[in-house]
Design brief:
Elements (H helix, E strand, L loop, with lengths): L17 H14 L7 E11 L3 E11 L12 E10 L9 E6 L15 H17 L1
Antiparallel strand pairs: 1-2, 2-3, 3-4
């Protein structure tokens, strides 16, 4: 059986607002297979005007708080960009990309399933780095 990548129906360019963008990122995150012990918050960072598109930048910051350590030793960020094309009709859905803070690889939610391991790896590397200092 082929594994289905979960995605959500993205809003159209004409209906897009910064708030709807953030709600939809939360909706996407809710489809990810991540243990409930992970907590995150998301925020809008900035709007970027380009020749043929407008880009809206967001960040979701993840941590693994525990009873013994309610403030995690390290966090992992996932950066999202919602792109509104100036060349496509405004009835077209927005395009969405994301990347992990430790990576330059840009992923599309409809093409790549998010892996919890990525968050673990970022935090593990940060903790190891801090211990070396």
């Amino acid at each position: 059986s082929k594994h289905v990548i979960k995605n959500i129906p993205w809003t159209t360019a004409k209906n897009f607002t910064v708030e709807i963008g953030q709600q939809q990122i939360e909706e996407l995150i809710s489809t990810w297979d991540i243990h409930e012990s992970w907590l995150h918050h998301s925020e809008f960072l900035e709007e970027e005007e380009l020749k043929d598109s407008k880009r809206y930048h967001y960040r979701a910051c993840w941590g693994l708080p525990t009873r013994r350590k309610p403030i995690p030793r390290a966090t992992a960020s996932v950066y999202f960009v919602i792109v509104i094309s100036k060349l496509k009709p405004d009835t077209a859905p927005v395009e969405v990309f994301y990347r992990l803070e430790s990576s330059r690889l840009i992923r599309r939610p409809e093409q790549c399933e998010f892996r919890e391991k990525w968050l673990h790896d970022i935090i593990e590397n940060k903790v190891l780095c801090a211990e070396r200092l």
